[in-house]
Every structure is written in structure tokens, then in C-alpha cells.
Automatic annotation (TrEMBL):
Signal peptide: none annotated. One of its GO terms (cellular component) is membrane. The keyword Transmembrane helix applies. It comes from Elaphomyces granulatus. It is a multi-pass membrane protein. Keywords: Membrane, Transmembrane, Transmembrane helix, Transport. This is Major facilitator superfamily (MFS) profile domain-containing protein.
């Protein structure tokens, strides 16, 4: 199978996203076990919220500073630092003897995941051939789903045991994938685009050849053309190099547009209602009379189904346009939540004994996971592919910062919204999703089938296009690269 090696590398580095998903699924079950309550007695709702939110706070900081590591030292280094800190933070959580130790561990682990969640999509998109770029870029969301599902089943299994094992093992388990990443990263190739940007052209050419040339060598000329295209695009970007955050926002209108689009799609993810679904589910399971063990199994089945949908959609995500997947996804989520709100209005889970209606409400959660799949996958792909190489790390840092910030907002506001607005809270997310669909239809350009360098054409940055594209897409000749720059590129 072609591109097997690059697929393996992207799947391996996406273990960082597994840690992201694992914590989402493990912390609520760990806090709920009796021994955790005995170890840390008298936890108020505010303290419990602080334990959960400290992780998100660390991730916000990590996503904000990641470009200072990723741009200077490379994509691999940013992920390696994240893996080390993730292992350290997980060890502190699993061995916590005080509340302060637990929260510090969560802040460190969150900071680590903030670094990795902003870097992994960039790495995957920069090493992937354009034919399977979305497939490999979506490994982040796929691993998030796997992490959530593993955490749910680990939490379920450990809940059957008494003592500190019931919560220390699930929290400590995160050390294993973090250490596997830490020791495996030195064997991964660096991003060829980062190497070219930093003058290491021979190494970049060798990596592109190893990862993209098929066994029969039939595409060797295409890979060489790809190398030239990347080199020319980066040489053009050097003339408009960004040295400050002010320049990033105010140098080129097309860059501001890209930032708004990237931040927007991450905001759409958080505003879709997916986190509220995770919060609201246990109330219905309890109202149906399910035991606590069965109530823990239902999210496990939900998570397994989500992984299945992710896997299925990844198989054709490179063949179907981003817009064609996003718009039905958002319209579908809005419709599902509208039905959910209507059911909650007439059949209150806390008071109703209408079993069929309550089961229909649960089925809406499973249907929601199907519609969310496209948005979940593309929310990591689109930001990484719309930015040029010169600002990709900073651009995805801003978009991921948006994701984590809104994650924190909804984590704090969802319980309040549900208690005060009740079923009407779901109508808010119906509106969010339908407005998002309209915004995608009106403002989001299609990027499928283009190399990362050719995406500049979509945003009208003709001066950043490689020679062969610029000459056919501009009424003015593309400003040629200087002889000195050409020498720097091809030595």
C-alpha cells in the first residue's frame, strides 16, 4: 500500500491527541468514585469544577505559546516537550496526596496537551501527500475519539474495584502513551516544510522522497516537482516574513481572513453542543432507572460508535469537499438538538416515566455523534491547511487557543444554562449550528485537492504561489525569486 510509512508516522504522533481524549473521558468518572471522595473530603461544586477546569486552563496557555517552540525548534520538539510534560503531569495526578498536587498535575498535563493539540495537525498536514492529506490530518480527531472511548471503559472497569486503585490507575495510565511518544519521537522525520524554511533543504528532499515516492518509483518526478513547489513557495513567503503578532494580523487582509476562518471553525465545534451532550446524558440514564454500571457502559458504547463514524468518514474525506461535509453536519446537529429540546420539554427526564420518549432522547445523542463527525474531523484539518508555511504555527496556535478557551467557557456555563433554561438551552445550540452552516456556505472556500502551497490561490495570494501556478493564475507575471534565493534553495 502506498504511503504506508507516512501514515504510520502520523498515527504515531497522534498519540498526543489520545491523551487529549483520554482526559475528557476519565476525569469525571475518577472524581465520582467513593475512594476519591474519601481521599479529598468535603469537595464543593466549585472545587470540583476547579479540578476539571485546571486542565483546560493549562491547555489554553500551552496552545498560546506553542509557536515559540514549534517555529524555532521544529514540530518534533514541540510534541516531545508535550509528551514529557504529559507523563510528568499524569504521574502527579495518579500519585496525588493533596488537592494542590492533583491540580498542579492537571495544569501541567493540560499545558502539554495544549502544545500537542496545536502541533500534531500541522505535522500531519506538512508531511502528508495531498492525495491523503485530510485522511492523515484527521488522525487527531480519530485519536481523540479513541482516547475518550478507552477512558470510558477503563473508568467502568476500575469502578468495579474498591480502594485507591479505582481512581489512581485511570489517572496514572496516561503515563504509558506519553512515554511511548517521548521515546518514539526521535525516530520520526521532521516536517520537510519546516526544514526548507530553516535552510535544511537536503534533509527535506530526502524525507519527501522516503515518505512520498511509491515502491515502483512511478511518481518520482511528481515528488521532485512537489519539492520544487514547496521551495519556491517558501522563498516567496520570505519576502513577506512575519516578525511580530501585529504583522500577522495587519500585514495582509488575506491572513486576517484565514485567522478568522480557522478560529471560526474551532468555535463552531465548541458551539455545536457536543460538550453539553456529554454533561446532559447521565441525567437521562438515571431517569430511565439504569444502574450506575449500566450508566457507565452507555457512554462507552456511544464512544465506540463515534470511533466507528470517524473511521468511516476518514475513508472518503479526501474525495468529498470540506463544504459538502460541513454544511449537512451542522444542519443535522441543529435538527437533532431541536428534537432533543422538544422531547425534554414534553418529557422531563427527572419526572417523566415515558420510557419510549426517554429512549428516543438517548437515540438523539447517538444520532448527534454521526452528524458531529464531519465537523470534528475537519475542525483540525482546515486550520492547518489554510495558513502558509510562514504563519502556520502561529495561526493554528490562535485557532486552538480559541477551541480551548470556549471549551472552558462552556464547561463553566453548561450546568448553569441547563439548570436555568432547561430544555430551552438546547435551542441555543440549534441556532448556533444553523448559523454556522450559513457562515460556512457564505465564507468558507473549498480546499480539497490542492497542495498546501496551492491553497494560497484560493485566498488571492498570487505572490505566494509557486512559479507554475502563479503564471497561470495572475494577469501579472509572478515576481521571480532572486538568484541568491534560488542558490539557497537548491544547494
Amino acid at each position: 500500500m502506498a504511503y504506508l510509512l507516512v501514515s504510520f508516522y502520523c498515527t504515531f504522533i497522534a498519540l498526543g491527541a489520545f491523551l487529549f481524549g483520554y482526559d475528557i473521558g476519565v476525569i469525571s468518572s475518577s472524581i465520582a468514585v467513593p475512594d476519591f471522595q474519601r481521599t479529598f473530603p468535603g469537595l464543593s461544586d466549585a472545587v470540583t469544577g476547579g479540578i476539571v477546569s485546571s486542565y483546560t486552563g493549562g491547555a489554553i496557555i500551552g496552545s498560546a505559546v506553542v509557536s515559540f517552540i514549534s517555529d524555532v525548534y521544529g514540530r518534533k520538539m514541540a510534541v516531545a516537550v508535550g509528551a514529557f510534560l504529559a507523563a510528568f503531569g499524569a504521574a502527579l495526578q495518579g500519585g496525588a496526596v493533596t488537592l494542590a498536587m492533583l491540580i498542579i498535575g492537571r495544569v501541567i498535563a493540560g499545558f502539554a496537551v495544549g502544545l500537542m493539540s496545536a502541533t500534531i495537525p500541522n505535522y500531519c498536514m506538512e508531511v502528508a501527500p495531498k492525495e491523503i492529506r485530510a485522511l492523515l490530518g484527521s488522525t487527531q480527531q480519530w485519536m481523540i475519539g479513541v482516547g475518550i472511548n478507552v477512558a470510558q471503559w477503563v473508568g467502568y472497569g476500575c469502578s468495579l474495584y474498591a480502594g485507591s486503585f479505582s481512581w489512581r490507575f485511570p489517572l496514572s495510565f496516561q503515563v504509558c502513551p506519553a512515554l511511548i511518544m517521548l521515546f518514539g519521537i526521535p525516530f520520526l522525520p521532521e516536517s520537510p516544510r519546516w526544514l526548507i524554511e530553516n535552510g535544511k533543504n537536503d534533509a527535506a528532499r530526502a524525507i519527501l522522497s522516503r515518505l512520498h515516492i511509491k515502491k515502483d518509483g512511478s511518481n518520482k518526478a511528481v515528488v521532485e516537482q512537489e519539492y520544487v513547489q514547496i521551495s519556491e513557495a517558501i522563498a516567496a513567503e520570505r519576502r513577506t516574513s512575519v516578525r511580530s503578532w501585529y504583522q500577522l494580523f495587519f500585514t495582509r487582509p488575506s491572513w486576517r481572513r484565514r485567522i478568522l476562518l480557522a478560529c471560526g471553525i474551532q468555535a463552531f465545534t465548541q458551539c455545536s453542543g457536543t460538550n453539553v451532550i456529554m454533561y446532559y446524558g447521565p441525567r437521562i440514564y438515571s431517569a430511565l432507572g439504569y444502574s450506575s454500571s449500566v450508566s457507565l457502559m452507555i457512554p462507552g458504547v456511544w464512544g465506540a460508535l463515534a470511533v466507528f463514524w470517524n473511521t468511516l468518514f476518514m475513508l472518503f474525506i479526501d474525495r468529498v469537499g470540506r463544504r459538502k461535509l460541513l454544511i449537512p453536519s451542522m444542519l443535522g446537529m441543529g435538527a437533532v438538538l431541536c428534537v432533543e429540546a422538544t422531547l425534554a420539554n414534553y418529557f422531563d427526564p427527572s419526572a417523566s416515566h415515558n420510557g419510549p420518549a426517554l429512549r428516543a432522547a438517548i437515540s438523539m445523542f447517538f444520532l448527534f455523534s454521526l452528524f458531529f463527525t464531519s465537523l470534528g474531523l475537519i475542525s483540525w484539518i482546515y486550520p492547518a491547511e489554510v495558513f502558509p508555511n510562514a504563519i502556520r504555527a502561529r495561526g493554528t496556535s490562535i485557532s486552538t487557543f480559541t477551541n480551548w478557551s470556549l471549551n472552558l467557557v462552556f464547561a463553566q456555563c453548561a450546568p448553569i444554562g441547563l439548570s436555568r433554561l432547561g430544555y430551552r438551552f438546547f435551542y441555543c445550540f440549534t441556532a448556533f449550528n444553523w448559523v454556522a452552516a450559513a457562515l460556512v456556505w457564505a465564507f468558507y472556500p473549498e480546499t480539497v485537492g490542492r497542495s498546501l502551497e496551492e491553497v494560497a490561490e484560493v485566498f488571492g495570494d498570487v505572490d505566494l504561489l509557486p512559479n507554475d501556478r502563479a503564471s497561470t493564475n495572475s494577469t501579472e507575471p509572478w515576481q521571480s525569486v532572486s538568484e541568491e534565493a534560488k542558490h539557497d534553495i537548491f544547494i
